[in-house]
Automatic annotation (TrEMBL):
Residues 462-479 have a biased composition (Low complexity). Residues 311-450 form the P/Homo B domain. This is furin. One of its GO terms (biological process) is protein processing. Its EC number is 3.4.21.75. GO terms for cellular component: extracellular region; Golgi membrane; trans-Golgi network. Pfam families: Furin-like, Furin-like_2, P_proprotein, Peptidase_S8. GO terms for molecular function: serine-type endopeptidase activity. CDD domains: FU (cd00064), Peptidases_S8_Protein_convertases_Kexins_Furin-like (cd04059). Residues 29-51, 460-479 are annotated as: Disordered. It is an enzyme of class 3 (hydrolase). It comes from the Eukaryota. Keywords: Cleavage on pair of basic residues, Disulfide bond, Glycoprotein, Hydrolase, Membrane, Protease, Repeat, Secreted, Serine protease, Signal, Transmembrane, Transmembrane helix, Zymogen.
Length: 767
């Protein structure tokens, strides 16, 4: 990565804390960049329980001091670094917001290697407080130049997760960093997505690729325990990127948060990772990949360009009109739909975008299972970016609600023209009903002027102000004046899926807040309502006659004009007090979606905690009393709470349990189970009589087979448990000496010696 000599900058690690007394780190720790959110004090020292070494390891990558006698050197070994202890306790929106907004005029770079679960089924992002912390950071941080947020792209590769479903890496404000192995390949944990900007080295295939060397945590600070060569994953990649960013800032302290992203795009190299497939040219001829972004970060090139760089022009944002034309997503595998939006890039307005940076597609759709969906966006220049790959484990939920899928693949392209969105049912799981694309919209980020003007070309640069460098000075007229960027627009940019505000008990009773109208029915023209004892007991506020269909409004629920106490089966009571239809898969429900069932028809199974009805339990669940109950432990599939039938990819199945290593008497099969060794084997590499690796007591290993007696010319060695060759000339032997000799040899003092002259005849009694 061409890491050059480093200069002093301040970085910050949001982690499980940093062991600041650590010898290779002590001189780099900056109290102004540190705090303990978990315990509410300024000391970020982690608990020494073996689980809190993550932050210390990351800190060592950034700022491990030079010439220490204990471990490797940090990328920016003269940098100051701080630690935020935040993961060793309850982690919520407020904790995250405090961590990424700590002392923003003192801290230049925030490095974070955490986020939502990388389980291949979660879609989640920052809460409202953390969203505003990001916004304040890029607007006001570093005295208006913008805080730089470096984020690990995630380790969900083994679950086929997608980092665009992580609202932290899928943000325009974060520099999302992926990993490459030592040999330049995609690591097994890598998540492919269109929001990854670049990559740095990290761990790869065990036994073939090395992991990252850095300082390690040890409560006693024993020199032999404060270094590790086993730091792994994208957690190890993000700190390396933060260190390189610190070098660029030292070369040019005036770089804004957007300048830093421009530098990464322009200087990262795809060539060291060219043996991995998936590279393609975007519309301006830059190579980019869903695996590695724009390639491997290059510190030398980045620092050189930073020294010559002038601040980019003001950021403009162009929002297209929402396309609300609903389109059916086919249930058949491989079926797809295409939607188009044509835009002029808001030409002639204060938000005009000619040169693209980030592109967001805000998509609302319904499809069950959601993990079958593949979404591609094609730019006017013809670049195809996959916003969402299939996620086979995402089988329970069905919706994206205005989720802002981010792509950085169109960087530098023109904004104007026709954009195409292709939504495909690309997964392999069975689909019972077509889905629907409800609406979508593009948010185009970029500049009106060309962003690159170098000092060496005689450019004077663009005048810098916090407002202009971070966000456009003008926006559509609905934006309040005086605010460089409204929170409502930023909420749209950062928005994610949110649960529907419908709550009901299993009997259909609506639970409403104090300001919610539970039951209401509009007055009909000409109706005369009376309040009288003749009104039906289900009426509220009067009636026009004695029946339950003559009420002014309903006390409980309105069923097609008739007031009822409870909604019937296959229907639910809405917040507005109307009986509405459940999804066709539900018997009772709390809403109209397929994942809001409360009970199922007798022929179906109810998936606990997920609210869906299925004909057979999904992976990770087993059937019990018409209910799908979650498997425990490391089971991928099971037949009871304690009996696994399939395990995670790195574990083996033995007698209904998932284990990391097969016990004695078993071997790992290609199906990731433990097969039985041949009875005489203690350990083995296969199930046949010739696949033994070691033998049981009183037997010996001979060419993969366990025997009680070794063959002629060999002997059983009790120490190794193997049949070993006798010395030359021996036809029989033990571990110490020969006991008999082959023809042409004679026994002498426990050894067989060759007869030198086979023509001599030995007379009787002569030697």
């Amino acid at each position: 990565m061409d890491v050059a000599p480093v200069w002093q900058q301040v970085s910050n690690l949001n982690e499980d804390a940093v062991e600041w007394q650590h010898l290779p780190l002590a001189s780099a720790i900056d109290p102004g960049a540190s705090t303990d959110i978990n315990d509410g004090d300024p000391d970020p020292m982690p608990r020494d329980n073996g689980d809190n070494r993550h932050g210390t390891r990351c800190a060592g990558e950034v700022a491990g001091v030079a010439f220490n006698d204990y471990c490797g050197v940090g990328v920016a070994y003269n940098a100051s670094i701080g630690g935020v202890r935040m993961l060793d306790g309850t982690v919520n929106d407020a904790v995250e917001a405090r961590a990424i907004s700590l002392n923003p005029d003192h801290i230049d770079i925030y490095s974070a290697s955490w986020g939502p679960e990388d389980d291949g089924k979660t879609v989640d992002g920052p809460g409202p407080l953390a969203k505003r912390a990001f916004i304040n950071g890029v607007i006001r941080g570093r005295h208006g130049k913008g805080s730089i947020f470096v984020w690990a792209s995630g380790n969900g590769g083994r679950h086929t997760d997608n980092c665009n479903c992580d609202g932290y890496t899928n943000s325009i404000f974060t520099l999302s960093i992926s990993s490459a192995s030592q040999r330049g390949y995609k690591p097994w944990y890598l998540e492919e997505c269109s929001s990854t900007l670049a990559s740095t080295y990290s761990s790869g295939t065990p036994g073939l690729d090395r992991s990252v060397a850095t300082v390690d945590m040890d409560g006693s600070l024993r020199p032999e325990h404060i270094c590790t060569v086993e730091h792994t994953g994208t957690s190890a990649s993000a700190p390396l990127a933060a260190g390189i960013a610190a070098l660029a800032l030292e070369a040019n302290p005036d770089l804004s948060w957007r300048d830093m992203q421009h530098l990464v795009v322009r200087t990262s190299r795809w060539e060291p990772l060219s043996q991995e497939d998936g590279w393609f040219l975007n519309g301006i001829g830059r190579k980019v990949s869903h695996k590695f972004g724009y390639g491997l970060m290059d510190a030398g090139r980045m620092v050189a360009l930073a020294e010559d760089w002038t601040t980019v022009p003001p950021q403009h944002i162009c929002q297209t009109v929402k396309d609300r034309t609903e389109a059916s997503i086919p249930a058949i595998q491989g079926g797809s739909i295409t939607a188009e939006i044509t835009t002029d890039g808001c030409a002639g307005t204060s938000g005009e975008v000619r040169y693209l940076e980030h592109v967001q597609a805000r998509v609302s759709l319904r499809f069950l299972p959601r993990g079958n969906i593949n979404i591609k966006l094609i730019s006017p220049s013809g670049t195809t970016s996959t916003l969402l790959f299939e996620r086979p484990r995402d089988v329970f939920l069905e919706k994206f609600d205005d989720w802002p899928f981010l792509s950085v693949h169109f960087w530098g392209e023109k904004a104007a023209g026709t954009w195409r969105l292709i939504v495909t049912n690309g997964g392999t799981r069975q689909v019972h009903h077509p889905g629907v694309l409800i609406q979508w919209q593009l948010i185009l980020h970029g500049t009106r002027e060309h962003p690159e003007r170098l000092r060496s070309e005689g450019a004077k640069g663009f005048p810098f102000s916090p407002t202009q460098s971070s966000f456009p000075s003008g926006f559509p007229s609905r934006r309040p004046s005086g605010d460089p960027f409204t929170l409502s627009i930023l909420d749209q940019i950062l928005a994610g899926s949110s649960p529907e505000a419908t709550f009901a008990t299993p009997d259909g009773t609506i639970i409403a807040g104090p300001n919610q109208l539970v039951a209401a029915h509009s007055d009909s023209a000409g109706d005369k309502f009376i309040e009288s004892e003749v009104c039906h007991s289900q009426c509220l506020g009067g009636c026009s006659g004695p029946g339950s269909d003559k009420c002014k409004s309903c006390r409980h629920f309105n069923l097609q004009g008739e007031c009822v106490n409870n909604c019937p089966e296959m229907m639910y009571g809405s917040i507005q007090g109307m009986c509405l239809q459940c999804d066709s898969s539900c018997l009772l429900c709390s809403g109209s979606s397929a994942n809001q069932c409360l009970s199922c028809p007798l022929s179906d199974l109810y998936v606990l905690h997920l609210g869906i009805c299925v004909t057979s339990c999904p992976p990770g669940y087993y059937a019990e009393n018409n209910t799908c109950v979650s498997c425990s432990g490391n089971c991928v599939e099971c037949s009871s709470p304690t009996y696994c039938t399939q395990c995670n990819h790195n574990q083996m199945l033995v007698n209904g349990s998932c284990i990391t290593n097969c016990p004695k008497g078993f071997f790992k099969t290609q199906q990731n189970t433990c097969g039985s060794c041949f009875p005489q084997c203690e350990t083995c590499v296969g199930g046949s009589i010739l696949d033994c690796a070691t033998c049981k007591p009183n037997t010996f290993l001979a060419r993969g087979k366990c025997v009680h007696h070794c063959h002629k010319g060999t002997y059983g060695d009790p120490e190794s448990g193997e049949c070993l060759m006798c010395q030359s000339g021996c036809s029989g032997c033990n571990s110490e000496s020969c006991t008999s000799c082959s023809e042409g040899w004679r026994l002498k003092s426990g050894r067989c010696v060759a007869l030198r002259d086979t023509h001599c005849q030995i007379r009787k009694n002569e030697y």
